[in-house]
Amino acid sequence: MGGTMRLGARETVLKKDSLAYRLYGSSSIMERHRHRYEVNPSMVEELESAGLKFVGRNMDSETTGDERMEVIELGEDIHPYFVAAQFHPEFMSRPGKPSPPFLGLLK
């Protein structure tokens, strides 16, 4: 599929003061990926200064060792529920155990 495709389960480390951490109840999660996209590292500081919070990160030891942004949020003062992920939380959802981001949306 090409050298840029990220496939399979990858570890993401969540900041403990994040909504994602509260939803998952853990600072380390495994979620499945299938994409070719990522955040340009040179834009992270500018995006954070505009209010976007990068709360989940992954160290990509397979290639350069670079840190990849995996989960973003907006504060509740900006939006009542804004959580976005680079991975596909629906891939790990099951009828008896839905993915935490989906449960958070329903609450």
Automatic annotation (TrEMBL):
Pathway: Pyrimidine metabolism; CTP biosynthesis via de novo pathway; CTP from UDP: step 2/2. Residues 1-106 form the Glutamine amidotransferase domain. PROSITE patterns: GATASE_TYPE_1. One of its GO terms (biological process) is 'de novo' CTP biosynthetic process. Its EC number is 6.3.4.2. It catalyses: UTP + L-glutamine + ATP + H2O = CTP + L-glutamate + ADP + phosphate + 2 H(+). Keywords: ATP-binding, Glutamine amidotransferase, Ligase, Nucleotide-binding, Pyrimidine biosynthesis. The keyword Ligase applies. The keyword Transcription does not apply. Pfam families: GATase. GO terms for molecular function: ATP binding; CTP synthase activity; identical protein binding. It comes from the Eukaryota. Belongs to the CTP synthase family. This is CTP synthase (glutamine hydrolyzing). It comes from Leptocylindrus danicus.
